[in-house]
Structures are given as structure tokens and as C-alpha cells.
Amino acid sequence: MNIPSDLLYSKEHEWAKIEGDIATIGITDFAQGSLGDITFVELPKVGAKVEQFANVGVIESVKTVSDLYTPLGGEIVEVNSAIDADPAALNNDPYGAGWLIKIKLAEPAQAKALLDAAAYTGIAHD
């Protein structure tokens, strides 16, 4: 299982990469593996304001339908529209081409509520 050390993680198996006041959000390798082959992703609209840990979308796979939560709050500034055409990118490259949304952070201090790679590793193996 791949858990990059330069990202932050939520207990719901989302990751965040913070660059300045923008966070790129996606699902972890553990999440995509648990879901199986991903067939559809519903993402929020650009401009939507979201609260930390709020439900912001849905991920459908051959096994299940799962809610997508945002590990950080703020305003959606970009969505990965390529996911519509190729939802399998979440399975193939969850930390790269499979990113989901970018958020302009409302409160950068919210990142303190997230887990580093070492702490997330313990949760992902439970």
C-alpha cells in the first residue's frame, strides 16, 4: 500500500496536499483498493463552499457506493473534470492523475486535525 509521506490524511481515507492556501484532495490508495474498480464520481461544483469533513460527493464502484468527504474546508476552486471521462484514474493513480478537487482553504489551521503518513498507516492497516 502506498502512503506518501508528504501528504496529510483523514480517518475517512482522503488525502490532502497543501500548497500555500490551496489544498489538492483525493482518496488514498487504501480507499481505492477497498472500493474496487471505480466506475463513476460525482464531485461538487467550482465555487461551492464546503466545511471540513463535510460530504462533498459520491464515488461508485463495482462493489459499492461511497460518500466522499473533504478533509479541509473552504471554497472549491477546481475539480478534476478528467475523472468524468476516466474514473479508473482513481484506481490507477490516486495521488496523481486521480486527484479530485482543489480547495482554497478557509482556515489553514484545520490541517492540524489531519494525520501524517505514520499515523494514517496505523488506521489503513486496521
Summarize the structure.
The chain is an alpha+beta fold. The protein has helices spanning 29-35, 82-85, 89-92, 117-124, and strands spanning 8-9, 14-19, 22-27, 38-42, 49-50, 55-61, 65-69, 74-79, 101-105.
Radius of gyration: 13 Å
Number of domains: 1
Helix/strand order: EEEHEEEEEHHEH
Give the CATH topology.
Answer: OB fold (Dihydrolipoamide Acetyltransferase, E2P)
What is the quaternary state of this protein?
single chain
CATH architecture: Beta Barrel
CATH class (first level) name = Mainly Beta
General shape: globular
Tell me what the structure shows.
This protein has 126 residues and is α+β, with helices and mostly antiparallel strands. It has a single domain (8-111), classed as OB fold (Dihydrolipoamide Acetyltransferase, E2P), CATH 2.40.50.100. The chain has 4 helices and 9 strands; from the N terminus they run E-E-E-H-E-E-E-E-E-H-H-E-H. Strand 6 (55-61) and strand 7 form a beta hairpin. The longest helix is centred in the C-terminal third of the chain and has 8 residues, at 117-124. The model has no long low-confidence stretch (mean pLDDT 94).
